[in-house]
C-alpha cells in the first residue's frame, strides 16, 4: 500500500453516486507517473477503484475485466453493482493466503427492474481478502484513507444532487491528498447518474 | 458437412468501411417461446451494445471486435462460441488488446482440426463466418469449415444454397463498395437465396462491423428486429411479394472462383 | 549502481543505459550492453540482479520473436508491455522471482506514435513520456521535468538526454559510460551519445546502414547498440 501510494473515495448522492481517485504512481518517495488512474468502468452505471500495490491494480483489473466480459456475453445483460461486489470479493478471497494488496471501492447504480422498481444508489468497499462493507454515505481507501474519513465526515450530507456531490467529493479528495505525501499529483472524478456519467480531471498540487 | 449444407444460410460482404452479415433463421414453429430470447420482446430494448440487440440464434459476439455467424449443429455451435469467447478473453488478459481476428480464427480451427485427427470423437458440425477488425489488417472476413480449414474472403457464404449464393455474390461484388452497398448486397443475395418470398426479422438476423466515427474503435452491432425491418423496408426487400425467389441460374461452382480472393490460408 | 533513461519525442523514443556490470561498489565490466532489441520497433533497457537480467531479457526476446514468427507481424508496444508486465507480476509471487527493472520503448507502426513504459520487478507498469531507473532517478527526473516538452524533435530529445547524462556525471560519485538507441518509424538505430553531434552521425548513415539495421521485418536485429 505504502509502496506506490494512491487513494480512492466514493460517495452516495440523490439518485447518483460518485467515485474519485488521485493520479499518482510512486516508487516509495519518488513520483513516477501522474497519469495512473485507479478507477475503472465496468459499464456506464458501475465503476470501481483499486488503490494499493500498482502491480496488483493491473492484475486484478485484468482478472475482473475477463470475468465481467464473460458474464456479460453469457448472461446477455450488464452486471449489477451488488453482483459485481461479490464477484470482486470472491476474486480477492481466491488469493486468501497470498492476497492482492488492494482495498477496492465499488460505486454504481442499479437499473430498475419490475422486481425492484426503486433501487438505491450503491457503494461498497472491502479489505484485501474480500470482506464486504456497504456504507450508506461514503467509502474511502488508500494511503490517505484516514484523512479522507475526516474530511468526508465533515463535508458529506444526505441526498446531494449530482453537481453538489461533485463539489463535495472533489473537495474531500483534494484536501485529504494534500495532507498525504503518497497521494495526489492530480485527480479524476466520475459522477454516475441514470442518464450519463460525468468525468472530470481535477488540477491539484503537483508537489 | 451434411448438417451444414442444410443449415440456415449465413453470408457476409466486406467493404472498406465495414462488414455486413446476414443469417437465415430456421423458423421452428409458432409454439416455440422466444419471448425471453435475446431478440424477444420480453428482454426489452435497453442498451446499445451488440449482445443486447437481436441475434442470439445464428450471430454471436465473440469479442468486442469480432462477430461470427454459425451454420450447423446448434449445440456444437454453442460450445464453440464459448470456447472462442474464452480464447478472446485470455488474449485480452495477457496482452491487454483485443485478439487479432485471424488469431482467433486459428484458435478455433486448431481445436476443430483436433477432432478430425484423434479417433473416437465426432468433429464439430459447424461452419463459421467471422467478421472483425484489428489494427494490423483492418476489416477482415473469414470462413471456416468442420475440418479446421479457414480462408479469408471479400464476400462469402455458408449453409444451404451456399454455392448459388456465392455465385450471386461473385456476379455483383465490386471493389470499393461502401458499407451501405455491402448491406444491400448482403440482403439482396439473401432474399434470392432464401426459400421464402419476403424477408423479415422473423427469418433473418443481421449485423455489421464498423469503426466508431469518433473513437475509431471497432463497433459490433447486431440489429434488433425493429431496426432490421426498417432496413428491409428502406431497401424494399421486405413486404414485396413479387421479389424474385430462387437460385442463380446454372453455375454451381461456389468457392474458389476467381471473384473470391483468399487473403490468407 | 545502475542508471537508465527513456525519453519520448514527437515520432521517436530514446533509450539510454549505462554499460557497467559489477557487484556492490566493484565494477567488473564497463562495456556491458544492457539494451536489447525485441523486434523491429521495440527495445528495452534493463537492469537489476545480474544473472536474472540477461536471463529475463533473453526470455522476453525469444517470446517476442516467437510471436513474430507465428503471426508474421510483431507484437505492438502496448501488448508487449502488458505481456512483460504480466510475466514479472506472476514471477514476483513465484518461488524464484526475477529481480529485473526495465524501460520498454517502442514505436507503434499502426498509429505512428512512440511509447515508453516504466516497469519494475514487481510488475508495476507506468505509461510515461520520460522515465529513469536506478541511481539516475534521483538526479535526472528533475532534469527531465524541467527540459522535456511535448512534441520534441530528435535534436531536442537528444539535448535533454545529454543534459541528464551530464547531471549524472556531475552529481553521482561513479563515472558511467552510456549506450543509447533511438526507435522511430524506420526501426531501431544506435546513437553515439558521446559524440559532439549524435544526430548528424545518425543521419549521415540513414539510407544505407541505418536502414538495413531496422527495417528487415522478419529478421529483427538481435543485438543493437553495443559500444565497446
TrEMBL record, chain A:
Recorded superkingdom: Eukaryota
Subcellular location: Cytoplasm; Nucleus
GO BP annotations listed: proteasome-mediated ubiquitin-dependent protein catabolic process
Free-text function comment from the UniProt entry: Component of the proteasome, a multicatalytic proteinase complex which is characterized by its ability to cleave peptides with Arg, Phe, Tyr, Leu, and Glu adjacent to the leaving group at neutral or slightly basic pH. The proteasome has an ATP-dependent proteolytic activity.
Keyword Iron: no
Keyword annotations of the record: Cytoplasm, Nucleus, Proteasome
Protein name as annotated: Proteasome subunit beta
The protein's assembly and partners: Component of the proteasome complex. The 26S proteasome consists of a 20S proteasome core and two 19S regulatory subunits. The 20S proteasome core is composed of 28 subunits that are arranged in four stacked rings, resulting in a barrel-shaped structure. The two end rings are each formed by seven alpha subunits, and the two central rings are each formed by seven beta subunits. The catalytic chamber with the active sites is on the inside of the barrel.
Pfam name, any one: Proteasome
Family: Belongs to the peptidase T1B family.
UniProtKB/TrEMBL annotation, chain B:
Gly residues: bias regions: 247-259
Classification via Gene3D superfamilies: Glutamine Phosphoribosylpyrophosphate, subunit 1, domain 1
Alphabetical keyword list: Nucleus, Proteasome
Tagged with keyword Cytoplasm: no
Main location: nucleus
GO CC terms of this entry: nucleus; proteasome core complex, alpha-subunit complex
Biological role: The proteasome is a multicatalytic proteinase complex which is characterized by its ability to cleave peptides with Arg, Phe, Tyr, Leu, and Glu adjacent to the leaving group at neutral or slightly basic pH. The proteasome has an ATP-dependent proteolytic activity.
Protein name: 20S proteasome subunit alpha 3
Native species: Kwoniella heveanensis BCC8398
Phylogenetic lineage: Eukaryota, Fungi, Dikarya, Basidiomycota, Agaricomycotina
UniProtKB/TrEMBL annotation, chain C:
Main location: cytoplasm
Gene3D superfamilies tied to this protein: Glutamine Phosphoribosylpyrophosphate, subunit 1, domain 1
GO cellular component: cytoplasm; nucleus; proteasome core complex, beta-subunit complex
UniProt-annotated location(s): Cytoplasm; Nucleus
Top-level taxon of the source organism: Eukaryota
Sorted UniProt keywords: Cytoplasm, Nucleus, Proteasome
Job of this protein: Component of the proteasome, a multicatalytic proteinase complex which is characterized by its ability to cleave peptides with Arg, Phe, Tyr, Leu, and Glu adjacent to the leaving group at neutral or slightly basic pH. The proteasome has an ATP-dependent proteolytic activity.
PANTHER family: PROTEASOME SUBUNIT ALPHA/BETA (PTHR11599)
Protein name: Proteasome subunit beta
